[in-house]
Amino acid sequence: MLPVTGRVAAEFPRFSAEQMFALAADVESYPQFIPWCRRASVLARHGDVLEVDNHFGAGPLDAGFRTRAVATPPHRLEITADGAPFRNFRLLWTFEPLPDGGCRVGAEYALSLRSPLLHGLARMAMPEASRKIIHRFQERAAALYA
User: Fold this and answer.
1) What's the CA gap between 138 and 119, in Å, rounded?
2) What are residue 20's phi and psi, to 5 degrees?
3) Does the N-terminal peptide bond of residue 74 adopt cis geometry, omega within 30 degrees of 0?
4) What does the alpha-carbon distance between residue 45 and residue 84 come to, in Å, rounded to a whole number?
5) How far is 50 from 25, CA to CA, in rounded Å?
6) What are the residue boundaries of the structural domains of the chain, listed by start?
7) Phi, psi for residue 17 in degrees, rounded to 5
């Protein structure tokens, strides 16, 4: 199976790279604004490395998994996993200051799921899901930093 890959980016003219990085690095707040995120709990913290227990679901689909988040404040947050339901998972957030203020946020992902059915669903859903997540980050930033 070929991995499901994609990239989405958006400019946030009212918010700094530091603000958007802080929002992305606060994984325990994800259930408040990220679609399908039911729980995200930090299990361990080692400097800028987090071990996170995640729980995502939609309708009858439900998955718990662990990720490792490596932060390089305020420019990068890399999230990886290789346990079930994934063969592998990588999400790279980037936060780039814009010349006139604000920042550009990018999210690049590559994932493979163990289940062919779930892998097929991910291939169809990820482009729209990633756009929706960026939109929710915009809404969350406006609510927190307005």
Assistant:
1) 28
2) -70, -35
3) yes
4) 22
5) 9
6) 7-145
7) -60, -40
| 3-class DSSP state of 93 | strand
What is the CATH code of the structural domain delimited by 7-145? 3.30.530.20
Contact 66, 83 (CB under 8 A): yes
Q: What is the pLDDT of residue 61?
A: 78
Strand arrangement of the beta sheet that strand 4-12 belongs to: 4-12, 103-113, 86-97, 76-81, 61-72, 49-58, 37-46
pLDDT in tens, the chain (146 residues): 799 999 999 999 999 999 999 999 999 999 999 999 999 999 999 999 999 999 998 888 788 999 999 999 999 999 999 999 999 999 999 999 999 999 999 999 999 999 999 899 899 999 999 999 999 999 999 999 98
Structure tokens at 82: 């290789």
Residue whose structure tokens are 């996993």: 81
Q: Which tokens in the block code for residue 18?
A: 């530091």
